[in-house]
Prior knowledge:
By secondary structure, the protein is α/β, with parallel strands linked by helices. It has 18 helices and twelve strands. Helices cover 43% and strands 12% of the residues. Strand 8 (250-256), helix 13 and strand 9 (272-275) form a beta-alpha-beta unit.
Amino acid sequence: MRLKNCHSFHDFRRMAKSRLPGPIFDYIDGGADDEVTLRRNTSAFDTCDLVPNVLRGVGEVDMSVTVMGQRLAMPVYCSPTALQRLFHHQGERAVAAAAGQFGTMFGVSSLGTVSLEEARRISSGPQVYQFYFHKDRGLNREMMARAKQAGIEVMMLTVDSITGGNRERDKRTGFAIPFRLNLAGLTQFAIKPAWAINYLTHERFRLPQLENHVGMDGGALSISRYFTEMLDPTMSWDDVAEMVREWGGQFCLKGIMSVEDAERAVEIGCTGIVLSNHGGRQLDGSRTAFDQLAEIVDAVGDRIDVIMDGGVQRGTHVLKALALGAKAVGLGRYYLFPLAAAGQPGVERALDLLRSEIERGMKLMGCTDLSRLNRGNLRCIERNWMDIEQYRSHQ
């Protein structure tokens, strides 16, 4: 399959599957336990239908948004994800360059494979730094100071990962960092020699943000041990409030799913929240971000920027989220499969296709700019939210 023949998320996924060894493909593709939440993240969008308006004079449309003080040329951004150079040797470099070309935001993870400083030099667009809360408070302060010095615009603390999810696909192949594959996993690598050649003929795999703690040699922690030994499961709202004050700028919590937690995020001074179940990779059976969106927007949307991610595969998914009140939508697998399939050209093609879908959808909806989208443009097959009055009556 060739890149020019990729026209949708599913095409990119198939192309990535043909290139990647099974254990690495499953690491991107899989979720926790029975993967119920993973599947629902996308199917949730099918519970709402779009209601277009016509004869609105939509020769030109404006799809720009401002979120957490950052102006984006399109209402989606490349959410921070781990281990990107494992999927393609360009890794975060490809994503940063593509995001910059399309005028949108991108993120680098604590478990990223390119330093946040190098990524900052590649793109002039706004950059997010995603990090976890460590038992070592000094390490937390060090990470924020480093991000500030690098010119990072938005700090994003992931709050739904105090322990790793039960990802059974990885267990079946023995996938881990550093590699500790079982026979089934090794066999999958053997039948995809092109990936191995690519991996071995480029620079050494590194985790620059945490290479003194997590790495590829025997003296460093594995990724699984990083989650179980270095992250602090006692993290509290007081801890986060202190970090928000210390950062003194745009600060976002990723992994918020309840109205109560959204309210607390506002109270401690966060400027954004990302409704997310971590792509279905943590707590299986949890509600989808799309299903929680209206309820949380009604509660706090006038005081904090509400973003969502999870399951987005089409421009119409983005429009439905914006109609419910999201300020922007985060992408994960949507750009990871194109990255794995073809590096920077793959990410660029995926973002270009999504931009075209959003533009086309806006024209067919009769919207000259995204502010015109509202809940009047949706009819829901099943009501998946309570309005704010109903919520308050339950308190």
